[in-house]
Structures are given as C-alpha cells and as structure tokens.
Amino acid sequence: MDSPLYKYIKEYSSTPLYQEDFDEILTYFIPKKLKKRSYFLQEGEVCEYVGFIIKGAMREYYVDNKNREYIVNLYVENWWVRNRESWVMSTPSKYNIDTWEDSELILITKENFIKLKEKFPSFNEMVTTMDERNIIATQNRVTLSISLNAEDQYQNFIDKHEYFFKRFPQHVIASYLGISKDTLSRLRRRMKNKN
Amino acid sequence: MDSPLYKYIKEYSSTPLYQEDFDEILTYFIPKKLKKRSYFLQEGEVCEYVGFIIKGAMREYYVDNKNREYIVNLYVENWWVRNRESWVMSTPSKYNIDTWEDSELILITKENFIKLKEKFPSFNEMVTTMDERNIIATQNRVTLSISLNAEDQYQNFIDKHEYFFKRFPQHVIASYLGISKDTLSRLRRRMKNKN
DNA sequence: CGCGGGTTTGATGATGCTCAAGCCCGGTGG
DNA sequence: CCACCGGGCTTGAGCATCATCAAACCCGCG
Description:
Two copies of one chain form a homodimer. Chain A is of the alpha+beta class. Chain A has a domain at 4-120: Jelly Rolls (Sandwich). Chain A has helices at 4-12, 19-27, 84-89, 110-119, 121-147, 150-160, 162-165, 170-177, 181-194, and strands spanning 30-34, 39-41, 49-55, 57-63, 69-76, 80-81, 95-99, 103-109. In chain A, strands 1-8-3-6 form a four-stranded antiparallel sheet. The first copy, chain A, has a four-stranded antiparallel sheet with strand order 2-7-4-5. In chain A, helix 1 packs across helix 5 (121-147). The interface between A and B is medium-sized, with 27 and 27 residues. Chain B binds a DNA duplex through residues 149-150, 169-171, 179-189.
C-alpha cells in the first residue's frame, strides 16, 4: 500500500493495521485540491475539517488590528492541518489558513475523525502520537522564543526545519520566527560573513 | 465524592464514571508531598511520573549555557505536571520542575497512565480533552509572543491567568513572559500612570 | 520591456536588556 | 525591641537589538 496516509499511520502507531481496515478508513476522507493562494480556512469560519496533506505547502496566520500578518504555523506533505481551537471548540477561527503552493489534501469531519479513533486502535494511537509530538514541538517553540535572540532562532530553524526552509521564502520564515524581514536579511549577511 | 481528581475527570469528560471505577483508578496513584523549593524533576533525569496537583504551586524552567533561568510553565492545583518530551520519549529532561510552595501531588507512572486510558473511557476522554487544551493554550502563547509587545503580553497575562498572578512573584512572571524583571517593573509603573 | 514578488540596504528611533545601587518589608536572632 | 538579613521590587545610565519606512535592486516571466 503506498498511500501517504497508510505510511503515516504505520509510522506513528505500533498497532497493526489491516488492508481492509485502511480501505474503510479511507472512505471517510474527501479528496480536495486547492490552487495556490486559496483558503483552507478563513478567519470567522468554524473549522469543520482536518486535512491530511498529500502534496503542497500551507501557512496559518493571524491578522492583528493593525492589519499585520503573523504566521503561526507552516505545513507541508504528511502533516495534518486545521486550526485546533476552532476545530475543538466549534468557535469562529481567529486564524486564516491558505495554500502557498498548489495542494492536494484529504479531508475528514470531526465526527468521522472521532469515529475512526474509536473504531481503529491504530488510528487512535497515531492521533495520540501526533498530538504528543505537537505538544512537544510547540512547547519547544515557546522555550526557544523566550531564550534565544533572532540570530540563534533562525539558526535553530535552519537546523531543525530544512523541509520548511526549502519551501517558503525568507519573509514568511521571518514572520514565523516573529522577526521582521529586514532584520532577517541583515542577520543572514552577518552569519555569512562569519563563515 | 470530593476528590479533586474525581471532579477533574467529571469536568473534562462526558462519559459517566462509577464510584467503584474511580476507586480503582485511585489505587494506581502514589501520594507525594514536596516541601517548598524541592525538585519534582531535575535536568538530566527521565520523567517517569505524571503528577496531579492537589495543593501547591510549581514552576518548570530551562537553564541555558550562560546559567540564565527561563520559566517555561507554571502549575497550580488541579493541573497535571510533567515534562512532556522526557515523559513521552523517555529521554533525559532538558528542564527542571520544582515547587514554589509546599505541595501535595498524586503520581502515576507512564505505564499505569496508559493502562487507565485503555481501561476507563472517561479517563481516556479526560486525557484527550486535557491534551487538546494544552495544544490550544500553548499555540496561543506562541501567537501572543510573536504578535504582542511586553506591555500587552503582561496585560493579557493578568486578564487570562489571575490564578497564576496571585501565586507567583513578579520576577517569575517576567521570566515566564520572556522579559526581564526590570522591564516588567517599569511597564507596571507606566500602566499605573495611565489609569 | 515592464511588472511583481522577493530581498537588500540605510537612516532613524523604539523597545527592552544589563548592571549596579538602593529601597522596602517581613522574619529572625541577639 | 532593635539590628540585620534576604528576597523581592524599583530606578537610573548606558547600550544592544530589533522595528520601521522608504528606496533601490534583483530576477523570472509574460
């Protein structure tokens, strides 16, 4: 089986998963293609679906009252995408999610997602693992943001997230790190001169 | 039943929980008292237990190579405490967790924690809810840290976390917010003058 | 050739840090 | 009862870092 989702479940769960079970799992998903720069979720909408990214790149961002954009998450192939708060609470999203490249996803509703967790132990285990990793990664991001300066944050980003680094332009990465594109450009020059 | 844990499970799960089941759940926990300023977890140790705080206040912090402390999490009554990364991965913790007040906890090992999730649906649901809230809260913290200046972060902290505000001194809150105690002191004066 | 998106650069200013000193206050021991 | 101590908070001077804004540049593409 060469479905990316199948591989993903195998990787993040130790419970066996039979072919026919996976086939059933797949029936709960809806394929969806999104052209570059189209919304997966817009501020004010309730996030009804979780998406699994087969192909593409996406970003999640927040717009403040001065119309500044802050990119809070980036997503590429084999990532789950949703706004957690809106999805869990069924409240209007404070964030936007859109595609940075043409993308292919498979979508599933919250109800079906929960159903799959109850019915298939391997699916459930995969979700637990994924959530745990999410918690660890986000916590790490907080720690880095309060303990590192701009340059060290950027260096750490390059080291740990090459898969993002190759896919998004500098000003997107700057926003993700909470620094201005100008500062990022300058510190890149400084770093280049050092080596 | 007036056990704080019982109330907690009821609050964070919609599945019924029978008295005798809860009694069984409790047998998996180990009571533990910790005097003020003693460690729950020290850097380098593997986090073997999750603790549920019955009484007390704790902090989790990171020490960098210049010996600066960065407080990354605060905990009070009715919170679960652990270092997630060390607990999940069974790797040496990069963080310290200690008590800020005399505290009473009940502890449970990872194996037993997983056992309870499998055996008691209400326990499992409570854990899911708790993890989801954790993800939402931490994500929010990231968003705030990249989009707000020091003053607005502090104001937001006061508004959203009075239960921490009352329990920890200023310099601890400053560290939690990623700003220096001096800056916090100054912006408090500025804010006072405004009103 | 011109356009658009992305990056660089300079000038300037705001924000927050560092370090050292002093203050306040509650607790303790003589 | 007073002196002292320690923890926490405040304050000032000087400095480092980073943001802002505007302009220029670069390059791929229609």
